[in-house]
Predict the 3D structure of the following.
Amino acid sequence: MDWWPATWAGIVEFLKSPGFAATGAVIAAALTYRAAVRKAAWDSWWERVQWAMERAESEDALVSEFGLAALLGLLDDDSLAPDEKEWLRTPTLNFLPPQVGDPLPEEGNEDVS
């Protein structure tokens, strides 16, 4: 183990050097950049969701269908986590009109299979 003291001394010298500080700064900048990119993507996605929901609530049937189509398209986004997809799926389904022949849920029994 004669190599260990020399190696440890080299590590200690590196930790004291400007090179270590620069390495830390580069890592911090990369993490900050990644967080900013993810936040920008989330903000952009959220703006699209808001836009689509506003259209889906429109009294104009064509505008409403367009908004619903946009919501359904957003559900197909592969970058969404499963809980985000579930969060978006619930209000999207509320915009869908009941299909002809679908049974109405009985009072107290909301689960229709």
